[in-house]
Design a protein that fits this description.
about 325 residues, alpha+beta, ten-stranded antiparallel beta barrel, about 25% helix
C-alpha cells in the first residue's frame, strides 16, 4: 500500500498535503479495542507523482487495482461510482483513501474512502445521493437526510466509505462533519440507527476533550453505516472525537484515554503498549500523535478506536476543516 511513493524522502513539508492526518501525513495507524479482541488498521493516501488531483486519481486507481489483483479486494463498488468521484475535467481535493484492517484471525480486509466534493458539477449531497442509488441503497437517502436535520451546511457530508468485499455484511458508510453541535444532541440523533444506545457518547466526548461543549475548535465527525441486511435503515452510527486540539500534549490525551478505557472495561494496557510502538518522541513533546477517538455501544458492549498520526510534518498541527 506504500508502493511506490513510500520509497521517497519524506522532506520537511508535504509536496501533497494529505487529508489523512491533520499535519498532512499520508498514513495513519489505528487500533479498535473491544473486550473480545483488538484490530489493527492502517489508512493511506497514495501520494501522486505530481501535486494535483488528476495525478492523485491515477495513483488511487493503481492502488485499487493492486489490492484487487494481489489480495482479492473486490473493486466493483468503486468502479460503479468512479465517474462520480473521480471525474474528468477539473477535479478538486483528494481522490481516494485506502484502509486495511488486520484481525487476530481472518484475512486482511480493505476499504476505500471517496470524496463527495470531487468537483463543482454536483454538491456533496447530490453526489452521495447518486452514489447510494447506484449502489442499491437509494432508499437510505431518507435516513441520511433526516440525520442531517440542520442542513448539509452544518451537517456536512465529507466521505463515502465502501468495503471492498462481497456479502450482505459489506458496508456503505456516509460520514458527516458537524459544526456547532452539542455532543448530547448528536448522540440523540444517532438513535436513527438500529444498534445505537443513546446516552453514552456525550460523556465519552467530555472525558476526551475535558469539556462538554460543541467541540468548536474542531468539528465532531460521525457516520451512518448501511448494509444489504439492514437495507435503508442504518445498522450503526459512530462518533469521532478530535483530540489534538483539546490537550496541550499527547501525554494528557493518553491519560484521558487510559482512564476512560478502564471505566469502559476495555484493555487500556494494550492501548498504551501499542501507543509506545507508534510514538517516535516523548508524549509530552507535542500533541499531534492522537488525532481522533471513536466509540460505539451495542448491546451493552463498548467498542473504542484510537487513531494515530505518524507526525511526519508537525507535532502541533492546527485545527482543520473550519466552516467556509
Amino acid at each position: 500500500m506504500l508502493t511506490p511513493w513510500g520509497n521517497r524522502r519524506i522532506g520537511t513539508r508535504p509536496d501533497w498535503r494529505s487529508d489523512v492526518c491533520a499535519d498532512g501525513s499520508p498514513i495513519e495507524f489505528s487500533a479498535a479495542f473491544s473486550r473480545e479482541c483488538t484490530q489493527i488498521r492502517v489508512l493511506v493516501e497514495a501520494v501522486p507523482d505530481r501535486p494535483s488531483t488528476a495525478a492523485a486519481q491515477e495513483s488511487a486507481l493503481g492502488l485499487t487495482r493492486g489490492l484487487a489483483e494481489e489480495f482479492g479486494a473486490v473493486d466493483d463498488r468503486p468502479a460503479a461510482v468512479q465517474d462520480l468521484f473521480l471525474p474528468d475535467g477539473k477535479p478538486a481535493g483528494f481522490a481516494m483513501m485506502h484502509a486495511v484492517v488486520f484481525s487476530p484471525d481472518g484475512e486482511p480486509e480493505f476499504k476505500v474512502y471517496l470524496n463527495p466534493d470531487a468537483d463543482r458539477r454536483m454538491t456533496a449531497a447530490e453526489r452521495t445521493r447518486a452514489a447510494l442509488d447506484r449502489l442499491g441503497f437509494g432508499k437510505a437517502w431518507a435516513a441520511v437526510r433526516a440525520y442531517a436535520s440542520r442542513g448539509f451546511d452544518l451537517d456536512r457530508i465529507v466521505y463515502l466509505g465502501l468495503d471492498l468485499l462481497d456479502g450482505p455484511q459489506s458496508r456503505v458508510k456516509v460520514y458527516f462533519r458537524h459544526y456547532d453541535i452539542p455532543p448530547a444532541e448528536l448522540d440523540a440523533r444517532m438513535g436513527i440507527s438500529l444498534q445505537h444506545e443513546t446516552g453514552f457518547l456525550a460523556e465519552f466526548c467530555q472525558a476526551l476533550t475535558g469539556d462538554g461543549g460543541a467541540a468548536r475548535p474542531q468539528p465532531l465527525v460521525s457516520n451512518l453505516t448501511f448494509t444489504a441486511d439492514g437495507e435503508h435503515v442504518p445498522v450503526s452510527a459512530t462518533l469521532y472525537v478530535p483530540l489534538w486540539v483539546h490537550a496541550e500534549s499527547d501525554r494528557t490525551v493518553r491519560d484521558r484515554i487510559s482512564s476512560l478505557m478502564a471505566r469502559m472495561g476495555l484493555p487500556a494496557g494494550r492501548y498504551r503498549a501499542l501507543l509506545e510502538q507508534v510514538a517516535r518522541r516523548p508524549l509530552s513533546g507535542g500533541r499531534g500523535i492522537h488525532t481522533y477517538a471513536s466509540a460505539r455501544l451495542q448491546h451493552g458492549r463498548p467498542r473504542m478506536t484510537t487513531y494515530w498520526s505518524s507526525e511526519l510534518y508537525d507535532r502541533y498541527p492546527p485545527a482543520r476543516y473550519q466552516r467556509g
